[in-house]
Specification:
Length: 489
């Protein structure tokens, strides 16, 4: 509606100018309250009007602009408060250069059929025998209205704080279509009807079948986690320890709405991984369920599997996953690991370590042996996890010894992370085998680099004394639809 009345005061000002100007101010103000990107779009539209407004209407147009600013004044304190908080980089990554290409794939459903239809319509417009004069002015206006918010959002996200997402470009997207179809002239009503029918049919099919939009998007992860927990509570009763990692208030809402009886423990109720590990170690129930959002710490799964090593069930939903684990083996267990590799440091008794069989890290050793291999060899799928487990003995309290994982492409470091061996607060012991864990959630790491190498090893910066027994690397089956609304299925 903003653009509708903007067009009237720009190019049809001879009729109802004052009425159209008032409605333009009204809808521009509504845009400013709707969303910051619709506010940005309204600003871009308003500024572009300065290049087209007739000179005798310029003053009225400028006054209208000040009226829009005045109407926004009550919202200024909220705007300044939110602007100081910057973006949402706590959960959203910065965009990469191919963002706009990925966006086009997304809006056209990752479908060759949809792109083929688009190109066919564009080609048909070009090959018309009596083509109208190309509307260059509207073509460039439309491109400007789509790409300018994207460029501003992109550079703000890269230089300041991440905020750019596919959904934020919705305000300018119709004008991208205007630019693509600006050269087409429909001389008959049946042509318009046929074009609309084709577009609706192809996009409905690709949305429902290829993208599985309704079956994926309408399964709310907060609710599905609770429904699956309830289902297994009815099956196992108190033989099932129930844990979830989800938003507290949203979970309460879905519990009450669905009248669910199952109670559960929240993983975020524990102050540390050590406390959660202590909780797991003291469980006597034969089964444990764990429902989590995509934001859950990936190391929680190998930590759970240290006590419940058998996976009975895995339910994948958009932005969430639900698991059921068992302490004992069952005939229909799911194999969670696609690839497993191990490096044994010790085969002989601990009292007599020998080179090549036991690896004693002490004041002379800063780095252990480890894995170094192409990521493609163990990755399998971009949504999988890589779990690294270290078995060790610690005769003395450890402070800085850590498992390290490193992803690199030639001379470019892609990802580096570590997990200290004392994270689980296990007491020192020369006889009791201890474990430490580090997990990589591959879907959250930018991996569009050539020849990525994965390294995993133990780092001993303070040169403490620790005896390493085994380093294990497992590729764990991830959730293939965790980001399915935005990714190719």
């Amino acid at each position: 509606m903003l653009v509708w009345y903007w067009d009237k005061i720009m190019f049809h000002s001879e009729k109802g100018f004052i009425k159209n100007l008032i409605l333009y101010v009204l809808f521009a103000s509504l845009c400013s309250f709707n969303h910051y990107f619709s506010l940005l779009f309204a600003i871009i539209v308003s500024l572009s009007g300065l290049f087209f407004i007739r000179k005798n209407k310029l003053l009225s147009y400028v006054i209208a602009g000040f009226a829009i600013l005045l109407l926004f004044i009550p919202y200024v304190p909220i705007f300044l408060e939110q602007f100081q908080r910057k973006g949402v980089e706590s959960w959203l990554g910065k965009p990469h250069p191919e963002f706009i290409v990925d966006y086009f794939r997304y809006v056209f459903h990752f479908s060759y059929l949809t792109v083929g239809l688009l190109l066919a319509i564009i080609a048909w417009g070009i090959l018309q025998p009596k083509r109208p004069k190309f509307a260059w002015r509207f073509f460039f206006i439309s491109l400007c209205w789509f790409f300018t918010p994207f460029i501003i959002g992109y550079f703000y996200s890269v230089k300041v704080s991440a905020l750019l997402q596919f959904s934020l470009l919705i305000f300018g997207f119709p004008f991208l279509l205007f630019a693509l179809f600006a050269h087409i002239r429909f001389s008959r009503q049946w042509m318009i009807a046929t074009g609309i029918l084709l577009i609706l049919t192809v996009n409905t099919l690709t949305l429902c079948c290829n993208r599985r939009h309704y079956s994926i998007f309408y399964q709310v992860p907060y609710e599905q986690i609770l429904l699956e927990t309830e289902k297994d509570f009815q099956l196992y009763g108190d033989s099932l320890t129930r844990v979830i990692d989800s938003d507290t208030n949203i979970s309460k809402y879905y519990q009450q709405t669905n009248h669910l009886k199952a109670t559960f423990v929240r993983s975020n109720s524990f102050s540390s991984l050590a406390e959660f590990n202590h909780f797991l170690a003291n469980q006597r129930s034969p089964y444990l369920s764990f429902g989590c959002l995509a934001s859950s710490d990936p190391v929680l799964i190998p930590l759970i599997m240290n006590y419940y090593p058998h996976l009975l069930r895995q339910v994948n939903v958009f932005l969430g996953t639900y698991y059921v684990f068992s302490k004992t083996e069952h005939p229909h267990d799911i194999q969670p690991f696609i690839i497993s590799k191990s490096l044994n440091f010790a085969e002989l008794p601990l009292s007599n370590p020998q080179p090549g069989q036991a690896f004693l890290m002490d004041s002379n050793t800063q780095f252990s042996r480890g894995f170094e291999l192409p990521l493609a060899e163990v990755m399998q799928h971009k949504n999988n996890f890589i779990d690294i487990t270290l078995e060790f003995y610690a005769p003395h309290a450890l402070h800085d010894v850590a498992i390290v994982s490193q992803l690199s492409s030639h001379d470019t470091l892609i990802d580096w992370r570590s997990s200290k061996l004392n994270l689980l607060a296990q007491p020192p012991s020369s006889d009791s085998l201890q474990k430490a864990f580090l997990s990589l959630k591959l879907s959250d790491i930018y991996l569009k680099y050539p020849d990525i190498m994965l390294k995993a090893y133990v780092w001993n910066p303070a040169k403490e004394s620790v005896l390493l027994k085994k380093l294990q690397l497992n590729t764990r089956q991830g959730n293939p639809i965790v980001y399915a609304l935005y990714d190719r299925l």
